[in-house]
Amino acid sequence: MEEKIVSLKQQGLTLKQIAAELDVPIGKVQYAWRKWRSQQAASDPKEESTTSKQANQKRSVPKSPKKKAAQPLAPSSQQIASTREEVSEVRSPLLEKGPEGYWKLPDRYNRDFMHAVVQSPNAVYVCWEVSDLVKETLELQFMRPWEELPKAFRILDVTLLDYMSGHSNRSYTFDLPEMTNSWFVRPLDPNTTYVFEFGIRTMEGEFLPIVASSPLDTPRDEPAGVGRFAEPVRRWQFGEVDAPELLDTLPKYSAYRFVR
Amino acid sequence: MKPGYFSLVLHAHLPYVRHEEKHRLEERWVYEAISETYIPILWQVDRLKRPLHWTVSISPPVVEMLADPLIQDRYVEHLDEMLELITLELSEGRSQEEVSTLHFYQQRYQDLKNTFLHWNKNLNEAFRTYREQGYIDMVTCTATHGFNPHLFTEQAARAEIRLGLNCFERHYGFRPTGIWLPECAYTPGVDRILYEEGVRYTFVDEHALLEADPTPEKGIGAPVYSPHGVALFPRDQIISGKIWSSMIGYPGHPDYREFYRDLAYDRDWDYIQPFMHPEGIRFDTGLKMHRITGDTDQKDFYVREWAEHQIDNHATDFAKTLEAHLEAHGGQTFPPFLVTAPFDAELFGHWWFEGPEFLGKVAERLEEFGIETITPAIFLERHFQDLQTVHVSMNTWGRKGYGEVWINERNEWMLRHLHVMEMQLVKDVADYRDSSELATRALKQLIRHYVLAVSSDWAFILDGQTTAQYAAERFREHTRLFAELETALYRDEVSERLLEEHYNVYPFLQDEDIEIDSFLSPHDYYVTVERGREDDAILLLTPEYTGNLVGDLGHRVVAEVEARAKEGETIYVLTPFKEGLPEYERHNHVHVYRVRPTSPFLEHVMNQIATQNLAYVKLVHELSSRVNFKAVHHFDWMTIPAARELAKSLSIPLYSTMLSFEATRNPHGHGGLYDAIHRIENSIFHAAETVYIDEQLSMEDLKERYAIQDNTEVCLPLDQSPYKEKALKKNVK
Fold first, then answer.
1. Which pLDDT score is estimated for A48?
2. Which of A112, A126, B273, B606 has the fewest CB atoms in 10 Å of its CB?
3. Are the CB atoms for B116 and B34 separated by under 8 Å?
4. Per-residue pLDDT reduced to its tens digit, B478-504
């Protein structure tokens, strides 16, 4: 039961929702979750080794894996052995074990991305991840632990503008609770191009974006007449431009897009 | 003939619910669809034996399950059990009305069995035959019904489309030019992929056209072209509503069979138990003995003759309604008015038991009324020149018309994992595509796991909270299998046996259907294949470089890079982007990346520098999986945070060159920025292997202001490498 509770919590359900889902008293859910959290806190050093494991994994050459040493090790050599094991711990980012040793969905991914998808003409769902590399760089830059850097979210209306130019028609920034990695952004306006950013507020109160979504159009919800798309569509239809001047919500992704 | 056309489209889809173990409740979804929808529709096609111009869309999971011997044999067993139950019922002395309905069912289940066996238990053969005889047209759907507006990458959308077409072609012997987009979900850009994959038409809900830009001249009376030239046929809600709406539609008539009242719940457990799940779960038998009766819990028995009478009435009413609708728009020309009516096939038969017969009767009535039926394919052949091109924004045929069903608080937790799988597939295909046959097969199996996870059914079920646990478990299972196989690929532990084990869990699609290159990006191909490997390299971070030389620092950097290059070192220079200079340059073994900050136009200096450092670490994170770095060398305080972090995460030595310090530039400085810079500068002394300072700086002065250690030295002459041999050696792999 405890494992189930932890697993559901990690899927993002609230304690109340879990209690309803499993049909158990909320107190039991709270207890199980607190217990697991305190166990986690007690085994924190282990957590750190996981982080360095993830960092190591990037550089390891996947095609020549080192097999784990199978024989039991003397206590004195345990430290060395575990280091060696870490090197061979090349694994899928989706492979994560829960406290009981069973696979579970990862709570987070050690990478940087933000993706926004349309829920309705007035609402967009945004989810994001921030890598350890980026978090630690910011810690070194601002000389404060990541947890203490205030998190914020910015909505930019970039309709008919180039986001990269730094201009926007309007923007709205709001603070986010710590540990947030997704948000239903609403209310928004239909037929508007938005960019969403997750970032921190610096000492000066300035918003510093860390990850940003691609520009996204909210759908229209009423007849357009002859709207802002009519002319770009015509130009593309009659071959007057080499590339369509229209947003493409399914862009090609490259794993090595920065490498030249 | 009346002016105008009518086009009926039926989309058959179920999630892939084939399980090796027996008695899975979800497998009954397939039996129900076969008994109530697929075979009854085939009966109508067979009865009428003429071109009906129905377009039947059949999704790859349904195609694959219909072709699966395990499901085929179990379905025959299921029919036998049903016949056994009916016989038992008939021996129980039921009322006259019940007996009459039981006789109807007895005949029907016998007919189902005969038809099923006639087609060698594979209904794909039946659909294929009728299509080849010209009675119906057929299209398919994307591989697993993934909701394309919520995919992250073009590659995933392309794979879903291409794999779906490949699978269909393997079973049906041709590649359709039309496709059913799951949930009629359209998003700008999906039309480009469809067009590139040879698809020329698809279906959308009517508000897609009503809200198009510019507003189409013909409204929903004609399809339009999307910007990339795919014809979008709109669902006519007035006509469709007559059929599907439970409020105004036909299926709610009191004489039709009641869906929610099943014999299983009207019998004692001891009696019905042999026909139920071995673990004691009661489920619908499919024998529904009552009619809708009215808005009451007291349901009367089903009277087959009454239902048949209503089918006739409703078919005639539908033809009349359609006739009036077409006449009202009779003036439309170029192209003539078209009513497109796309439906979930399972609506007919499963939800509305009498639905397939209704469709057959409608086909006859339309002939009598002189209403011309047409398929989208024929419509396009005739009228392709008459369609307007417009921009269509994201929309679906789901609740409220957009994405609410597929992304909400009940199912959003799945999305990030799907996106990570997409990104991993792109990377894995780039990294492993030519490495070995086993690796190629592992990549195909990873794609199989991914497409099974991305099925829109899981989000849909979680939204409806009907069999939520099953949907969530299926999603987790596919994700776990993906994670385990990908790990095996990375550890070189893929074997024949492992691949077989993974395939056998859900034997969906053949390997030949899956093209790994649908996930390849041309740029990644260049990086992994054409770019080639290099020697271990030095990573150099500097605020100034050629084209952007402000003072001594820049000249020192350029001179050092030239000196090291002469010695044969490979060097990656990372420096801020400068307008007018190329973002990337290469001179033999010297790569110069002029890096744009992650966000331009920040007001405060420290924040601008932070965005530059973030851009450096993100770039190096990618570079480091292609290039082996042996040392980081940074110049000036601005690059310290990135340099420290990279040295730590790559576990390589850090070298620092500081030609000046805030405290020496600005001896009386104070305040927030001064302190912040001082702290960053101070942090380099314990982090770096060696800190090189300008010979003109006084070590004593510095010691007063910084925590200088014995790793601080004056800059070496240019012909002497600043990188200590000993330190570099420990990184040689």
1. 37
2. B273
3. yes
4. 999 999 999 999 999 999 999 999 999
Q: Which helix (H) or strand (E) holds B164?
A: helix B154-172
Angle at CA of residue B529, ends B524 and B535, nearest 5°: 105
Pick the CATH number of A113-237 from 3.40.640.10, 3.30.390.50, 2.120.10.30, 2.60.40.10: 2.60.40.10
**Do the beta carbons of residue B391 and residue A226 sit within 8 Å?**
no
Nearest to B572 by CA among B609, B605, B542: B542
User: Looking at the partner chain, which of B215, B607, B619 has a beta carbon nearest the beta carbon of A223?
Assistant: B215
pLDDT of residue B612: 97
> Model-level pTM?
0.89
Task: Check the CA dihedral A175-A177-A181-A186 and report its sign.
Answer: negative
Is A87 or A213 the better-scoring residue by pLDDT? A213
| Residue in chain B lying closest to A132 (CA) | B649
Rounded CA separation B146/B414 (Å): 13
**Residues in A 198-257 with any Cβ partner in B closer than 8 A:** 199, 202-204, 206, 208-210, 212, 217-230, 232-234, 236-237, 244, 246-257
Cis peptide before B216 (omega within 30 of 0): no
Q: Which are the contacts of B109, defined by CB distance < 8 A and separation ≥ 6? A: B35, B79, B82, B83, B86
- C-alpha–C-alpha distance, residues B99 and B596, integer Å: 80
Q: Could you tell me the pLDDT band of residue A84, with boundaries at 50, 70 and 90?
A: very low
Nearest Cβ partner for A250 among B189, B413, B622: B189
B637: burial class by Cβ within 10 Å (0-12, 13-18, 19+)?
A: buried
By Cβ distance, the residue of A119, A137, A208 closest to B402 is A119
DSSP code of A180?
-
- Average pLDDT of span A50-57: 39
E-assigned strands of B228-291? 231-234
| Token pair in block for residue A89 | 């711990």
Q: What is the pLDDT of residues B71-112, one digit of tens each?
A: 999 999 999 999 999 999 999 999 999 999 999 999 999 999
H helices present in A44-200, as ranges? 44-59, 78-88, 132-142
Give Cα separations from B284 to A241, B575, B670 (angstroms).
59, 69, 80
Which of A40-49, B67-76, B287-296, B564-573 is the least confident region? A40-49
What is the C-alpha to C-alpha distance for residues B86 and B149, in angstroms, rounded to an integer? Answer: 46
Asked whether residue A166 carries a pLDDT value surpassing 90, the answer given is no
User: Which two tokens mark A39?
Assistant: 């166990």
How many Å apart are CA B253 and CA B257, to the nearest integer? 9
Backbone torsions φ then ψ of B599, nearest 5 degrees: -150, 125
Q: Do strands B584-587 and B54-58 pair parallel, antiparallel, or not at all (unpaired)? A: unpaired
Q: Which of A3-17, A235-249, B351-365 has the lowest mean pLDDT?
A: A3-17
Domains of chain B: 5-401 (3.20.110.10), 412-528 (1.20.1430.10), 534-729 (3.40.50.2000)
Q: Quick one: average pLDDT of A38-42?
A: 60
pLDDT at A76 over 50: no
